[in-house]
Amino acid sequence: MILARTLAKSTMCVAVLAVGCVNETYAPDEQESKNWPNFPIADSDGGADNGGGGGLDPDAEILGVETLDVTIPASLHAQGLKIPAKLVRPVWSKPVGPRPAMMVLHGSGGLLKDGKSNNGPCSDQMESQFATWSTRLAELGYPVLLPSSYSARGFCDKHSQADKMPKTFDANTEQILGRIYDLDAASRYLCDLPEVDCDRMGLLGFSQGGTMTMLGLHWQVEHALQYFRENKAGTVDIEIPDIKPGRPEFKVGIAYYPGCGFDGTVPLSTSNSAAVENKYLATAPLFVLHASDDPLVEHCSTEYGTGSRQIQAGQVATKMNVENLYDITVYPDAGHSFDSAGGKADGGTPAGNEAAKEKALKVALEKIHLHLDN
């Protein structure tokens, strides 16, 4: 497996994106069927635990799930922005020590429902997709952090509240750049939680959050920011600071129907003469779960589009003599948002979308388990 410390042995700069206060509990407003796989995992003594793996006391049981409102402090954010977030975690019957953890990244619909609360411009309630996913993962033993990039900037949904977006976030490129810093800060925060094993953290994202998952594993994020600052800084309304050294490494990434063009933040050239550090490579196993009837698949898959990122990953891996950890599955007859919308997804057929949702769920949970619990 390629990790940032492996690539650091080369002369290239290497990046794996990473990392408050608890105040109240929260319960999902809606929950889907719990027919997801339950993985019995061998502990260090040969016994089995409740999910999450890694030497868990066999007598420890998950009694329930709690959801907390937390704030990722501005001191961790390269742009000095504090980020509201949800922390969803299992309640154990006894202390279990640091555990594998997940970060879940929302798409362009935002993390929170519309409606002001005492905590900000949006409701305290997560959209049902994220309430379901975070509960699902917590019930398997993982603490889950869900940063809310949009409510941090005064709005809830990119599509319905564009008029509320600040000038520094009203362009697609600015959103991707801004969320790189959000992800960096959130990863440091998650890593510092006492219940989290910082060496076993994973990323899961949807749509724009899938894009951020890919960038969270990108081997050259620091260089990408520097390159953008030197060549395109005049095209955006934000400063582009460096990210501090010492970010945690992620062990796995699951990207549901991302846009792989990255809105210009990382070059797309697959020319053999293009600088290798300007090409995409994942530093940990990356599983892209996409849809055949989704325009965003264009730069992700060579079978369904130009597949620029898939090609780049192969080129960099060959050039650097490392393993190519880019994996993509494209579900036929499926459209964008098949996970949240099911049969009513944007494109595809009802049957195709439902099949994609079911198959992708199985893949996502299996890969999270495989790479965080072993």
TrEMBL record:
Name one matching Pfam family.
Answer: DLH
Domain Dienelactone hydrolase span(s) in chain numbering: 128-365
User: Origin, by domain of life?
Assistant: Bacteria
Q: Which UniProt keywords apply?
A: Hydrolase
Does this UniProt record's set of keywords contain Acyltransferase? no
Q: Where is the segment annotated Disordered?
A: 29-57
Q: Which InterPro entries match?
A: AB_hydrolase_fold (IPR029058), Dienelactn_hydro (IPR002925), FrsA_esterase (IPR050261)
Keyword Hydrolase (UniProt): yes
Q: Name one GO molecular function term.
A: hydrolase activity
Q: What's the name of the protein? A: Dienelactone hydrolase family protein
